[in-house]
Amino acid sequence: MRPELLPIALPQPRVAESWLDERANHGLRTVRGIADEVRQGCSSAEEAIGRWNDLEIAMSEVVSAASLFSEVHPDEQVRARADLALQDAQALQIELAQDPVLYAVFSGLDATGLSPLRARALDRLLRDFRRAGVALAPPQRARLKEIVDRQVVLGQVISKNTRDDVRSIKLAPDRLAGMPSDWIQAHPPGEDGLVTITTDYPDAIPFRTFARDRAARQELAVEFLSCGWPANDVLLQELFALRAEHAGLLGFDTWADYDAQVKMIGSGPKIWEFVTSISAAARERASIDKEVLLDRLRQDVPDATDITTADVMYYAEAIRRENYAVDAQEVRQYFDAAAVREGLLSVTGRLFGLTWLPVQDAVTWHEDVLAYDVWLQDPAGKGELIGRIYLDLFPREGKYKHAAQFTLASGVADRHLAEGVLVCNFSRGLMEHDEVVTLFHEFGHLVHHIVAGRQPLVRFSGVATEWDFVEAPSQMLEEWAWDPAVLATFAKDRDGRPIPADLVERMRRGNDFGKGYQARTQMFYAAVSYDFHVAPHDDLTERLRELQSRFSDFPYLPGTHMHCSFGHLDGYSSGYYTYMWSLVIAKDLFSAFDPADLFDPQIALAYRDKVLARGGAADAADLVADFLGRPYTFDAYARWLAE
Fold first, then answer.
1. Helical spans, DSSP H, in 301-407
2. What backbone phi and psi angles, to 5 degrees, belong to 136?
3. What is the pLDDT of residues 510-554, one digit of tens each?
4. How do residues 212-244 score in pLDDT, each as one tens digit?
């Protein structure tokens, strides 16, 4: 038991701005003070690493809270103050990383006698200094700092533009044919007699999946794929140019080379090789599935020669309903949002030996947010409080538009509890099964963050592995959202009847439809992510169209500018390939589990302790090999793709 470790006392919404201001100012003062002490020298490498750990903890306290509030707080002034805190923190981070005095202190340390973990930390720290340009001449260091500072601002503005640019279409009620009755009830006509449908996920995804009105689907798809345009187009051009200059100052040919240096993949060209190889491997399967879609479209539009993204979701759903006897509207009756949430907690608690206890009196930033304390159960039955999670699951104005796990506090052994936040935009009533899968996926990040929150060094805490591995644990957890026995524990209709096992099996088969073109679509996104960072393009939309014609099975939808709301171009930059790279590893990790007993404690706890709990304390490839008893391979993914 560690009763002295308590969760962060979050502020009431009305004082959040002053709380954030005080937290940022105090944290950055602490960082500067520790840096001054280290500059004076340390008596040993052990002391130096310990003090730098103190500094990184103080910095993480500023960055984590500001990153979260910037994206989710309902008060625009709080979001603005959070953005400013992030700018100040990033500026200080690059200032310290470029400090030749600090670099001299750490590069001059005698690492003899350091534990393997602290030796790893020293090696990573020295690499951070070099990647920040500490060896550059003063004018180049100054320019690099300007570039980094501007990149932070650009990322924030791009994100804000995406959040704020919620578009909509208006339709007469008779054009809603095909939509679920509860969705229609939640969208009454306005004073003008028309129904407003926005580009937010709970509106757009169901509409593009079920609405029979093809013209309306296309109209909404164009709006959905144009959010953030034209403002973000100009900002992205500037961001890509700055990243190219950034990489060049450090001696890299491209930003992709610079970014890949610290990932499993190792180099920029290998990203392109991976993208093209996956795309080629999926081509035959994609072609077969697309022809099925096109044949179904021709039943409604006999002269159709191709199918665009405006129609894919609708006709894929039609194929599943007609060919696989899977009707998403029938399926969704089993997925009440509250029941899914409780089922997810039960499943993950059983799987990983965790207990999620509701915190009824927790202060949060919005009334929708739920808090849970996380207890780890040991074999003797004794519990240990290891963290707190917050679930912010529904859309609102000014909130982050996608789904992600945010860090509120990085866990550090005997010092700080791990705290994480799940930020999503799901339907409040009945959920689509796709939403359930997404919830399991994102919750995988949250479990990883909490379980790995007892590392002694904050730089290895939580989801601190190489960035092209970080999605693997979450992608693997999706498998539990497809298991009939697992779903039957919480997926029930309003009369309490569990979802039939044969329906889940049909859902699985239906979900397999399209995996080829879905893989190639992912590689189209990965190609955009990579290509935009290795060469300048006068017209990003035109280059996107060219890449879509090469990698996607569906043609460009005229009038759209998908890249302007493709938020991963900021966060993942040139590395969107990581989703598929991680999926390859996730399929291999899952091969160790027994399909007949997904809760086998020997396997599940070995996975928890050997992969999740170690955070970034070892290279991802070594973590996987330790769990599997061998290096990871492409075999499981190849089998899955061919099924």
1. 309-323, 328-332, 337-352
2. -75, 160
3. 999 999 999 999 999 999 999 999 999 999 999 999 999 999 999
4. 999 999 999 999 999 999 999 999 999 999 999
CA distance 253 to 423: 36
> Residue 379: is its pLDDT beyond 80?
no
Q: Which of 457, 451, 459 is nearest to 349 (CA)?
A: 451
- Residue 377: DSSP 8-state: E
Q: Which helix (H) or strand (E) covers residue 9, if one does?
A: none
Cross-strand partners of 277: none
Instruction: Give the C-alpha separation, 197 to 426, whole Å.
Output: 15
Q: What pLDDT band is residue 2 in, cutting at 50, 70 and 90?
A: very low
Q: Nearest to residue 422, comparing CAs of 340, 498, 538, 540?
A: 340
- Contact criterion met (CB below 8 Å) for 452 and 484: no
Q: Which of 387, 392, 394, 386 is nearest to 405 (CA)?
A: 392
Show the CA angle centred on residue 118, arms to residues 115 and 122, nearest 5°: 135
420 three-class SS: strand
Residue 21 burial by Cβ neighbours in a 10 Å radius (0-12, 13-18, 19+): middle
Residue 547: which of 559, 563, 570 has the closest Cα?
Answer: 563
pLDDT tens column, 4-48: 799 999 999 999 999 999 999 999 999 999 999 999 999 999 999
Tokens linked to 456? 């002694």
| Alpha carbon distance 91, 591 (integer Å) | 44
Distance between CA atoms of residues 555 and 546, nearest Å: 10
3-state secondary structure of 419: strand
Burial class (CB in 10 A: 0-12, 13-18, 19+), 318: buried
With beta carbons less than 8 A apart as the criterion, state whether 443 and 348 touch: yes
User: Do 258 and 250 meet the contact criterion of CB atoms below 8 Å apart?
Assistant: yes
